[in-house]
Structures are given as structure tokens and as C-alpha cells.
Specification:
heterodimer, A: 308 residues, mainly alpha, 12 helices, B: 344 residues, alpha/beta, D-Maltodextrin-Binding Protein, domain 2, 8-stranded mixed β-sheet, globular
């Protein structure tokens, strides 16, 4: 009798706690939406599709910020995913025992560095390095590509993407490593028994088996990249313009809020900034949903890998 | 047994903290303020020094930005606000009572640049500064820059413009200045804590702009005088309305306040840019504390008035060390009359 009471009580308590998350999210959206009303009413859909951001004349268009957020995050993924998977495979499968622990520790330490430190290092370390070394190289050999055209000042979409990739590598690699370690040994043994080489074993048994888990890790990383504020603000150049070149300065939604919220005095201005927050919320939601759907698609399609 | 001990400890802890809280509250009157970040170093120095003069009062100041300061004083969640920009007529009308602007100190905005090969201090005419920020003057050896800097060899590098990306009083003063010297700027861009910049890169805070300028050869940017001096950044002389090139300094900023004395409105909502006076530096601004004329809390009102009186007189001696410009005597007298009108 008592056990049963504890059981149901526990269930109710945890349900309540879980519901708090739902309530908080709804409250957040509700508050942002009500505060954004002046801007939504005045600007309507123009807010999403125009590129002028003029606080003086109170004309606001969020397109460059949306573009900047999405492009910088995907650029970060493009760099971070191969590197992170390499780290994870090495740590889970290949590294000698005495290297695993210290290296995993170091990777996780990277995740604990505050983003403002990444930003400072970005301005004083990475940006000058990119300008003096990487950019001349890219301009000379790949300059015919529109993404590597134009002047480079150190701060740019390119720099922001690289900083972001450093920030999400620990997340993606440590989660992926856990996923790889969770692959049952029977899978590896089966692959080896079939005469697989070490590389084939990793490709067939480990990577194939943990595909959905790895996608989950990438989504986690993407979430961090989309919402990252401080480090990006310091290296992206803060210019609300859409440019094909990655060397051009850009701007993200999180950055403009962080930059302008404290000194926004007029109601309309404040409301436009809050609407940006709302848009950021929905963009993040949309990207997450797309990624989840992708995970379902991939996990339903059995291909390679050995399933239980 | 263990539980009972825990409960006893909890009771003792609560009781002691309550008693401690009461006795502190008995002794100290807490006055809350919020607003501008620019005068924060001076304000915290003042609040610290003032506890030696009146130990019964404790000031708590949150440097959340002028925008936040204006909102909080209008919502009456703080006892005083602080702002680098004067309130608009509309904002004053929306406030629940009559708000006073009390000038506390003045600051200057300087033009800094990165030209390692140039050893001399550069000079700029107002229209050249505006056209650089409009993207019309593109190279350092532009004839208009060369004309103001006779004898200086200027490189042909492109000018990389840097500005603040965060909303700030510094930007407000700077764009106010550009609007006052260039009609083109006034109609195209205007003034504000953030504007739609025609060209350039945005850096967060003084340190962000300084970082961009330091890292980029050929860059130009604007920062607070205090920041430039403390960090040994090079800064330019600017031509004032009298036609003299003035080096930004505490004295030339105080001169800017002096230059506006005659045209000072009764509510002190004045912009300091382009003041009269042959020694006045033209890119300067006041920073204000915002208080209600009619104080609702008698005791707090009295303490605030006492503090304000002290800050604009004896308190001014702390300004120069922190690189703020002390207010001139003539203005202090006018402010004292204003403070006398506060009712509590």
C-alpha cells in the first residue's frame, strides 16, 4: 500500500516537474509575442524580408540577422562535424589507454571555457592569424569562388564560423564518443569475425550502429551554435548586410539583441528587438524539428550496420 | 535525533540572519539607482567616498545602460536613474511625475586610428570626419585629410571604419556631433545610441572598437577619452567652431561645458557638441542623474538631495583622476538652484 502511494506520488511529482518546462516555454513565447506586438503590427511580414536596420528612423528588417545566424551555424557544423567525429573515433576505438583519459578530459575542458574568452582570443589571436596566413592563401588559390572574394578585415562570417566550430567540437565529440562506447562489443566482434579490417569494423559496426546518436550530438552542437552570443559578437563584425563572401562582416540575431537591448529606449525599437528574439526562437525550433525528422528518416532506413 | 538537530540549526540560522538583517536595515538607508555605464567608475567612487561623509546611507547602483535607467526610473522601480542621453519630450510626458535632469559630469569622445608609420598627432576637420563615416573619404592620402595635416606623410591605404555595435551613449554623442556638422549625415543617418551605419565594422564596447582599430592597419574608430588615455591609444585633434584644432583633454572638455553655459536651457537637456569657445573640444556630452521633483519617500528624498549637492561640489574633485571633466563653477551654481527645487 505504502509502496503504491510512493510510486504514484513519484510519478505525479515528476510529471509536474516535466510540465514546468512546457509551461516555461509557453510563457516565454507568450511574453515575447505580447511585447513584440507594436513591431509586428507596424512592420508585419516586412520585418522578416527586408534588410534595413535603422533604429533612428525606426525601420527594422531582420533578414541579415536571420541569414547570419543560419550561415554562421552551418559553417561551424561544416568544420566541426568531421573534426569531432575524428576525435570521437580516435578516443573510443583507436587511442591507447593512457591517452584516452587525459585527451577526453582536455576536450571536455574546452567546453567549460566561457564564450567571452573565446571571443577575446578570436579578436586578438585568431583574427590576425587568419588575416596574415589563411586568408591570403584562400584568396590566391580559391579567390575565384564568390565565397572567398573581397577585402578581409579579420572580423567576418568566416572568423565567426571558425570560433563557433571550436566551441561546438567538445559537445559533438564527447557525446559521439559516449555513443560509440555504447555500441555492444558483439557488433565489433561480429564485424571482425567476418574478416573486416580495423577501418571496416569502425565504419560498419561502430559508425553504422550509432548513426542516430551521432546526429543527436550534431543537433546539440547546432543548438549551441545558433544561440551563441558573446564570442560571435566579438568576431563577426556586426554589420547587418547579406554578402555572398564569407570574408565580409555579418551579424546574428543573438548578437544584435545582446548589443542593442540595454540602450533601446523607444518602445518600437525595444519591440523590434524582442521580435528578433521570437524569430530566433522559431528558427531554432524549425532547425531542431528538421534535424529530428532527419534522424527518424535515417534510423528507419536500415543501411550498413548490423541491427539487433 | 539527527533531524531535530537539523531543524534546530535551521531555526538558529534564520533567527540570526533576520536579526542581522534588521540591525543592518536600522542603520543603513538603501538608495537604489540604475542606468548609464559611462559614468559608473566615477559614481562608484562617489558612493564609496560618500559613505565616509554620511555612514547612514548606502547607494546601490546598477550600470545596466542608459536605456534601462530611463525605463526603471519611469517605472519607479529605482530611486534615481542615470543617462548619457537626455530624455525626449515624449519620454518626459510618459513619466509619472516631473523628472529633473541633474548634470553630474562631462565626457569626451575621441577619434583613434591605426597608422603605425605616422608619428605625429593627426588633425581632422568636422566635415572630413563625417565623410569618412559616410564612406566618401576612402583613403588616408585623400587631399582633404592631407590639407589638414601639412607636413605629415599619409599612406595610400584604404580607411577601415570601426564603430560601436552595442547601443551606447558614446555613439549618441558621436552621431549627435556628426549630425551637427554634416547635413548629409543628419538626413541619411541621424543620431542615436545605435544608428544604421553607412560603412564600417562594429565592435562591442570601447574595448571592441579599440580591438578592431589595433588589429587593423588603416583603421579609424571612436572611443571615450578616458578609455583612449588609459590604454595609450593615439587620438586626433578636431577643429572646433572657432577654427582651432583642439586636443581632447579634461580641460578642453570642461571648456566645452563652459561654451554652452550661455545657451544652457533651464532643464539642462543640452548637447555639448560644437560649443563656443576657442579652446573647447567639440565632441563632448553631459551625463545626468534623473530624479523626480516630488520625492515620495521623505527620508530617501532628503538623502538623495544631500548626496547630489555633495557630488556636484566636493565630489567634483574626484573627476579628473578618473578622466572625467569636472563641471565648471558657473554651471554648478545653476545646478544647485535646480536641486533646491526637489521636494520631499
Amino acid at each position: 500500500m505504502k509502496i503504491k502511494f510512493v510510486d504514484t506520488g513519484f510519478k505525479k511529482a515528476t510529471t509536474l516537474i516535466a510540465l514546468i518546462v512546457v509551461a516555461l516555454t509557453l510563457l516565454l513565447v507568450y511574453n515575447m509575442a505580447t511585447n513584440a506586438i507594436p513591431s509586428i503590427q507596424k512592420l508585419g511580414a516586412r520585418f522578416l524580408f527586408t534588410s534595413t536596420w535603422d533604429p533612428v528612423k525606426e525601420d527594422f528588417g531582420a533578414l541579415p540577422f536571420i541569414y547570419g545566424t543560419i550561415v554562421s551555424s552551418f559553417l561551424a557544423l561544416l568544420i566541426a562535424v568531421p573534426v569531432s567525429l575524428g576525435i570521437a573515433v580516435y578516443l573510443a576505438e583507436l587511442a591507447p589507454q593512457f591517452i584516452r583519459q587525459p585527451l577526453s578530459f582536455l576536450v571536455e575542458l574546452l567546453a567549460a571555457i566561457p564564450s567571452v574568452v573565446y571571443g577575446l582570443w578570436g579578436i586578438f589571436g585568431l583574427a590576425p592569424f587568419l588575416r596574415s596566413t589563411i586568408q591570403p592563401f584562400l584568396s590566391r588559390y580559391l579567390g575565384f569562388l564568390p565565397i572567398f572574394k573581397g577585402e578581409f578585415y579579420g572580423v567576418s562570417m568566416f572568423t565567426a564560423g571558425i570560433i563557433l566550430s571550436f566551441m561546438i567540437i567538445p559537445t559533438i565529440s564527447s557525446v559521439s564518443r559516449e555513443v560509440f562506447l555504447a555500441v555492444p562489443f558483439t557488433q565489433r566482434e561480429a564485424a571482425l569475425a567476418l574478416g573486416a579490417t580495423s577501418w571496416e569494423k569502425i565504419r560498419l559496426a561502430v559508425l553504422g550502429y550509432s548513426r542516430s546518436g551521432v546526429l543527436g550530438a550534431i543537433i546539440l552542437g547546432l543548438g549551441r551554435a545558433l544561440g551563441e552570443t558573446m564570442a560571435v559578437t566579438m568576431v563577426i563584425g556586426n554589420r547587418p548586410e547579406i554578402s555572398a563572401s564569407l570574408f565580409a562582416p555579418s551579424y546574428t540575431m543573438a548578437s544584435v539583441i545582446a548589443n542593442e537591448f540595454t540602450e533601446a529606449t523607444s518602445n518600437m525599437y525595444l519591440s523590434a528587438l524582442i521580435e528578433i528574439g521570437l524569430v530566433l526562437f522559431f528558427v531554432t525550433l524549425l532547425v531542431n524539428i528538421t534535424a529530428r525528422v532527419l534522424v527518424w528518416k535515417v534510423t528507419n532506413k536500415v543501411e550498413g550496420g548490423i541491427r539487433e | 535525533m539527527k533531524n531535530r538537530l537539523l531543524i534546530l540549526m535551521a531555526i538558529v540560522l534564520t533567527a540570526t540572519s533576520l536579526i542581522a538583517g534588521w540591525s543592518l536595515a536600522d542603520k543603513l538607508l538603501l538608495i537604489n539607482g540604475a542606468g548609464a555605464t559611462f559614468p559608473y567608475p566615477l559614481y562608484s567612487k562617489w558612493f564609496y567616498e560618500y559613505t565616509k561623509i554620511d555612514p547612514t546611507v548606502n547607494f546601490n547602483y546598477q550600470a545596466i545602460g542608459s536605456g534601462g535607467g530611463i525605463r526603471q526610473i519611469a517605472a519607479q522601480t529605482v530611486d534615481f536613474g542615470a543617462s548619457d542621453g537626455a530624455l525626449t519630450d515624449e519620454q518626459l510626458k510618459q513619466a509619472p511625475g516631473e523628472l529633473f535632469h541633474i548634470p553630474m559630469t562631462a565626457g569626451a569622445v575621441v577619434i583613434t586610428y591605426n597608422l603605425p608609420q605616422v608619428k605625429e598627432r593627426l588633425k581632422f576637420s568636422p566635415d572630413v570626419v563625417a565623410d569618412i563615416y559616410l564612406g566618401k573619404v576612402k583613403r588616408w592620402n585623400d587631399p582633404r585629410i592631407v590639407k589638414d595635416n601639412a607636413g605629415v606623410t599619409l599612406p595610400g591605404e584604404p580607411i577601415v571604419v570601426a564603430h560601436r555595435s552595442d547601443g551606447s551613449g558614446t555613439t549618441n554623442i558621436f552621431t549627435d556631433y556628426l549630425s551637427s556638422v554634416s547635413d548629409n549625415w543628419k538626413t541619411k543617418v541621424g543620431k542615436g545610441t545605435s544608428v544604421n551605419w553607412p560603412v564600417g565594422l562594429g565592435g562591442k564596447g570601447n574595448e571592441g572598437v579599440a580591438g578592431l582599430v589595433k588589429q587593423t592597419p588603416g583603421a579609424i574608430g571612436y572611443v571615450e577619452l578616458a578609455y583612449a588615455v588609459k590604454n595609450n591609444l593615439p587620438y586626433a585633434d578636431i577643429k572646433n567652431t572657432a577654427g582651432n584644432f583642439i586636443t581632447p583633454s579634461i580641460q578642453s572638455t570642461t571648456e566645452a561645458v563652459n561654451g554652452k553655459i550661455n545657451s544652457m536651457p533651464a532643464d539642462f537637456r543640452v548637447s555639448l557638441v560644437n560649443p563656443d569657445g576657442k579652446d573647447a573640444y567639440p565632441i563632448a556630452g553631459l551625463t545626468w542623474i534623473l530624479v523626480y521633483k516630488n520625492q515620495t519617500d521623505k527620508e530617501k528624498g532628503k538623502k538623495i538631495v544631500e548626496f547630489l549637492r555633495w557630488a556636484i561640489t566636493d565630489g567634483q574633485k574626484y573627476s579628473a583622476d578618473l578622466l572625467y571633466a569636472p563641471l565648471p563653477e558657473s554651471l554648478v551654481k545653476k545646478i544647485q538652484e535646480k536641486i533646491d527645487q526637489i521636494r520631499y
